[in-house]
Amino acid sequence: MTAVLVIEDDDRIRLALLLALEEEGYSAYGAATAEEGLRRQRESPADHVLVDLMLPGLDGFECIRQLRRDDDVPIVVVSARDDTHDIVAALEAGADDYVVKPVAIKELSARLRALRRRGRVVTAGVPAQVFGDLEISAEAGEVRRAGRPVAVTRTEFRLLCELAEHAGRVLSRQQLLRRVWGYETGDERLVDVHVGRLRQKIEPDPANPRHLVTLRGLGYKLQR
């Protein structure tokens, strides 16, 4: 059974989420602080972690950063804060998705299922693709730049592989949301933030990308 850790300081919201997730077939358990959540995840790792941003003590952003340093668990922010700055900051901290309260449990469950379907090894038997000094091996689940390993998250890896599979072709943000995130509709900022993070890792000059380029009004493409 898929396990979900809910890090939420509001007792009523946390309990409501736990009960709703259990009705959806998940094994769910909660934590009222970031510190408690981090400890529980280290001791008994969940398959997904839901994190509120406004936590007492250690806030949600730092909680996400520490979770991400420990492992590659899918992280979804569940917060009442819907400001673009907060969404971008949470994604840059390492969250995979962002859901604004009040939460529609069916939508949240669908997103968790989509996250669960993602894996690091995308396609067996596919040869590594080379873009200058950048090498992407879907089968091995590896990215190398100038021969050195590049540390990428699960979502960044799938995004890079999707763009590599369609090298030279422009993919719209909505196409990438469907193919990488498994969402029929979603917030396009998810794509933009992850592209920005990838550029920091794979481009010699992220401000003037050579391989992962933007086609204004159209989307992104990976070029040799």
TrEMBL record:
<feature type="domain" description="Response regulatory">
    <location>
        <begin position="3"/>
        <end position="116"/>
    </location>
</feature>
<feature type="domain" description="OmpR/PhoB-type">
    <location>
        <begin position="126"/>
        <end position="224"/>
    </location>
</feature>
<dbReference type="Pfam" id="PF00072">
    <property type="entry name" value="Response_reg"/>
</dbReference>
<keyword id="KW-0804">Transcription</keyword>
<dbReference type="InterPro" id="IPR016032">
    <property type="entry name" value="Sig_transdc_resp-reg_C-effctor"/>
</dbReference>
<dbReference type="Pfam" id="PF00486">
    <property type="entry name" value="Trans_reg_C"/>
</dbReference>
<feature type="DNA-binding region" description="OmpR/PhoB-type">
    <location>
        <begin position="126"/>
        <end position="224"/>
    </location>
</feature>
<keyword id="KW-0805">Transcription regulation</keyword>
<dbReference type="GO" id="GO:0032993">
    <property type="term" value="C:protein-DNA complex"/>
</dbReference>
<dbReference type="InterPro" id="IPR036388">
    <property type="entry name" value="WH-like_DNA-bd_sf"/>
</dbReference>
<dbReference type="InterPro" id="IPR011006">
    <property type="entry name" value="CheY-like_superfamily"/>
</dbReference>
<dbReference type="InterPro" id="IPR001867">
    <property type="entry name" value="OmpR/PhoB-type_DNA-bd"/>
</dbReference>
<keyword id="KW-0902">Two-component regulatory system</keyword>
<keyword id="KW-0597">Phosphoprotein</keyword>
<dbReference type="InterPro" id="IPR001789">
    <property type="entry name" value="Sig_transdc_resp-reg_receiver"/>
</dbReference>
<dbReference type="InterPro" id="IPR039420">
    <property type="entry name" value="WalR-like"/>
</dbReference>
<dbReference type="GO" id="GO:0005829">
    <property type="term" value="C:cytosol"/>
</dbReference>
<dbReference type="GO" id="GO:0000156">
    <property type="term" value="F:phosphorelay response regulator activity"/>
</dbReference>
<protein>
    <submittedName>
        <fullName>DNA-binding response regulator, OmpR family, contains REC and winged-helix (WHTH) domain</fullName>
    </submittedName>
</protein>
<dbReference type="GO" id="GO:0006355">
    <property type="term" value="P:regulation of DNA-templated transcription"/>
</dbReference>
<feature type="modified residue" description="4-aspartylphosphate">
    <location>
        <position position="52"/>
    </location>
</feature>
<keyword id="KW-0238">DNA-binding</keyword>
<dbReference type="GO" id="GO:0000976">
    <property type="term" value="F:transcription cis-regulatory region binding"/>
</dbReference>
